[in-house]
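Bug #77: duplicate submission created two jobs. Keeping one. Sequence:
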Amino acid sequence: MMDVIKGDNVFVAGSGHGQVTRVLPGGAGFQVRIGGIDRHFSMDGRIGGSGDQKVFYHDPMVVEPCRDGHLWQTYTRMSRLLFDEILRLAGLGLVADPEDQE
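Kept job's structure:
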């Protein structure tokens, strides 16, 4: 479940950046405006509640995938491990807010 609120900026895979224009009552989903058109998504960021997640808080693609499948698997496995460790440290209050370092 995504915890979006009206006005949140989000990224929709295949469409780009958009803004949440409406959160429907009772967990019925939310709408995102992309290029002047509102599109409906389920509360887990899927179209119609099935298929792959399409809505994210940020663009999930941070590097261009390489052709080598083994190298890509290694990269994704290491990235997930690193992110899990960052989440653990954040939970302990050990990840500084960049605004605090100015």
